[in-house]
What we know:
alpha/beta; Rossmann fold
Amino acid sequence: MGIKEVGAEELVKAGLDVEEAKTVEKGLKEAIIAAAGGSSGGLNQPELWRQLTARQRLLKPSHPHSVHQLLYYSVYEHYNGPPLYWFPSLDEAKRTNLGRLMESHASKLLGDAYKDPITSFTLFHNFTVQNPDVYWSLVLKELSVQFRRVPKCILDTCDRSKHGGEWLPGSVLNIAECCILPSAYPRKPDDGLAIVWRDEDNDSHVNQITLQELREQVMLVANALDSIFSKGDAIAIVMPMTITAVVIYLAIILAGFVVVSIADSFAAKEIATRLRVSRAKAIFTQDFIARGGRKYQLYSRIIEALPVKAIVVPASRTDVDVQLRNQDISWKDFLSSVVHLSRPNYYYPVYLPIDSTTNILFSSGTTGDPKAIPWTQLSPIRCAADSWAHVDVQHGDVVCWPTNLGWVMGPILLYSCFLTGATLALYNGSPLDHAFGKFVQDAGVTILGTVPSLVKAWKTTNCMEGLNWTNIRAFASTGEASNVDDDLWLSSRAFYKPIVECCGGTELASSYIQGSLLQPQAFGAFSSPSMTTSFVILDEHGVPYPNDQACVGEVGLFPLYMGATDRLLNADHEKVYFRGMPIYKGMQLRKHGDVIKRMTGGYFIVQGRADDTMNLGGIKTSSVEIERVCNQVDESILETAAVSTAPASGGPEQLAIFVVLKKGFNTDLGRLKMLFLKAIQSNLNPLFKVSLVKIVPEFPRTASNKLLRRVLRDQLKRELHVQSKI
């Protein structure tokens, strides 16, 4: 339906009462006139959407999602290009972190070519790629990075054996100290809020801790660590991301030890693997995890793993609620080991070179041992700088992102708050229900991070109904490809605030491609490489496409990437990230493994991993591209997964669509297959065929919630094998 055909009657059918429908209809007609320039000429669709959302705020969070869908899809009917939903104003742009930096310095750096932060964003980004030393020298002054010994330079590329160069050579610091010290700029006073948090069993109170109180707790734990461990020891954390976990994380690094990050969702065998690979000397954990009034054992999984010492934190009482092994120690006894000190809450930090390992993280590990990825002191600087520049995390922001220290977003969240002067918001409970949303409301969260599957769950269950999220000024999303309709729902909860898409990796300590608050945004799309980052899109022969050409291919990163790894603990770094990659402009490109689509206008869509591409009838396509089309064909569909494989007897790859239905729905497989076939052939390629459709209760996923298409592909092979025998 075209937007000019939408009137009060259609709005009532979508869920509005009659009076509200008339109000919206009146505003819609006014917006259509404004977007057409006051004439009956052609309609500027992005301008019309801006009129409806930014100017008039005609669409409200309280309106049914069906109303938002009706107007959004009607506005952008037959639109050619990525439909834009958010547009920066010049005043807003100048108040962002990056906008302020550009206003202060870009005119000197770019001369008369500089106009303003919006008009000149691409020009300035290109400047940062060509002059990363200039950009990083400016950004380092914006973050709470205090060197004990200043770097000799920003970037040294003399050593040709180091593809990524040497960043901040000669510098010495303690990055945890930078997190807990007060500073005038960025504004981070001792009495400012460092962390706010809530436990799920108490929805009436938001707990708070100041920066000074946080520092004293971190230093107390650092002193206790010194009474047990030797400098450089690796110490694991396997517990929910509570305030205690954050204190432990910072204390380990402050005292010159190395954090081993392990997600608390892992089974004992997976925990054991990570302890073995990292050679951890001990592990911090909880006795159990409390969720929804139930207790889930955690300590029992730990003692099934390798027999290292465990320091056990109580989940809900003053002391642990389990019988400990002789070698283990309770949190209470651990802290009591320093009561004899004259100043137990004071600690002199251990200062180390910039390239010293502070944190060992792991890849998802879907096959074999997971890659052990060391973070140096560069990594926190990079992730905080990208949050500063792209998500615009500032002093005064309250940032919440449901995650865990075992996944890369845990440390990224921590450093993005403490190095910018923002407040970290933690919820100790499930993020899947109303109580989490109420915490977001009550804590005054201004930046909310998500993963797409979480947003889908919120939208499907309608669990956030009745909450006020209008304090949020930006969302962020990472982990997997976003769904346009789910993002439409999310953005509408806060009067269509932007969702900054982020895509990167643990080994990059950041996102190589992101959204930006200095550019208009499209749902599920990326608008720019991250600052100082450059990449090319490679065709099937490894040849880069021209930078202005719409195309699909595997991404190749330029290797001068501040914060990226230069080593792995249990794999050949050169082989994993560089071997077989083409040389371009005199540099060997770095492998990342994503397939991305560059659209007309310079926007990007990440179409999944190169391993998830498929060849259908001689044409390469991606699972994500097919899933985007299939997810929309019927209201009964919660999500789809597309995989393909060649039959054992040979022949072309056959496409299968696995489907999870919404609760309470049932549908005919034959009908679904016809709907998928029609949608794929109409939207992607008329030669594509669907060989199999299978409804499953849920998809197999990693502990970080990434879809395991490999498992589905194996299932497809078995299905085809059975069919061949019939």
